[in-house]
Amino acid sequence: MASPERLRLTVIGCGYLGITTAASFASLGFDVLGVDIDPARVTQLNDGVSPVYEPGLSDLLAAQISSGRLRFTTSYETAAKHGDVHLVCVATPAGPDAGVDLSQVNAVAESLFPLLTRPCTVVGKSTVPVGTAATLAQRLRSSAPAGAEAHLAWSPEFLREGYAIHDTLSPDRVVIGVMEDADRPVKMLREVYANHADRGIPVVVVDLATAELAKLSANAFLATKISFINAMAEICEATGADIDSLSQVLGMDARIGPRFLRAGVGFGGGCLPKDVRGFLASADDLGTPAALSFLREVEAINQRQRERVVQRAGTLLEDSWARSRVAVLGAAFKPGSDDVRDSPALDIAARMHLRGAQVVVHDPQAMASARSLWPSLEYAPSTRLACQGADLLLVLTEWPEYVALDPVSLATHVRHARVLDGRNCLDAEAWTSAGWTYRGVGRRTS
Prior knowledge:
- The chain has helices at 16-27, 39-46, 57-67, 76-82, 103-112, 132-143, 164-169, 183-192, 194-198, 208-239, 243-251, 272-286, 289-316, 344-354, 367-373, 383-387, 400-403, 407-410, 428-433, and strands spanning 8-12, 31-35, 70-73, 85-88, 120-124, 150-154, 174-178, 203-207, 325-329, 358-362, 378-379, 392-395, 418-421, 437-439.
- By secondary structure, it is an alpha/beta fold.
- The strands form three sheets. A six-stranded parallel sheet has the order 3-2-1-4-5-6, with helices on both faces. Strands 11-10-9-12-13-14 form a six-stranded parallel sheet. Strands 7-8 form a two-stranded parallel sheet.
- Strand 1 (8-12), helix 1 and strand 2 (31-35) form a beta-alpha-beta unit.
- The model has no long low-confidence stretch (mean pLDDT 94).
């Protein structure tokens, strides 16, 4: 078996996950070959230019290209000859039936498996329904040439956008899912993750189904915490309680913890919504009603939260949508990202636009992505221009520059000083003192 210093990796699929994975493992000294079917993207990556925004990724990518440890190709033949370990990082988007679209995973199996003529391990990192890995393992056995000793394992990613490099190099845990009696892939993956283990990061070996379920259940739990605190925010608004104080008290309980307990417009992005819906589809197929019932409510609360923000905006505008200019600060689903997939911010902006308001959007990183998805909205190149003459301001992504806005100065640019803080990230007292009508989510305000 190859020594850690000479172990060669391929990363199949050069989207957000693949680029981060490839550049991060190259930084650990591995010889990494990235594979993507898009020639233009491969050329761009070989030039050291990242097509996606993630803090620190552009510099890391350029450095690893310059070091010679990282390069990219469109050739599966080259990948099969290169890799001791093949990390499959292709997208698994939502399917048309609310399930998961596995077409890219299946395309990798069709293109790569027949070419594996020497000992290697194929490692899935994409998020997939439970049972996918077992099916792929059987397919690998039947597709790979005799004597290739090609094994399949699953090691799900747990990346947070905005912290993806950190979460690749210093995750809370590493999960390795394998078939029974699969000593060779376990030994090989322990080499891949040797740097992690040396720094005390737990490496947990489980079966394939548990590895798949680890990612799905983690995201379902996080989504549940977010929907729970948003449900509590609704109760706070009905009773006069304060959600910030309630969240603080709950978070002090070591069994609960403070993270993911900030009320707001709900969860979005390319993972939590898709995984909750995909989990729902899987639970339906498996006939597990308990999982179905609570996950449906998690999803329903999340969607209802967006509409509640729109209704609150309508109240502040006295339902004069057609005569109102609304400034929306934030289009990405979270700060530190240009990802607008299932973004609550952009969804709320679109809903207000469809009610007849003139909606002007600003975001530090996601303007191009937002414009491609909703070209009918207006986009301003700066916060000030977005707010110019506004009847209502909504802060829907908690970018630091929005949190740091001066409410006194900004009040001179708007027509009506009314702000709806959809992320509970502003200093309510400072904005109220500056003459603004302030509304948060579940916050008690004077």
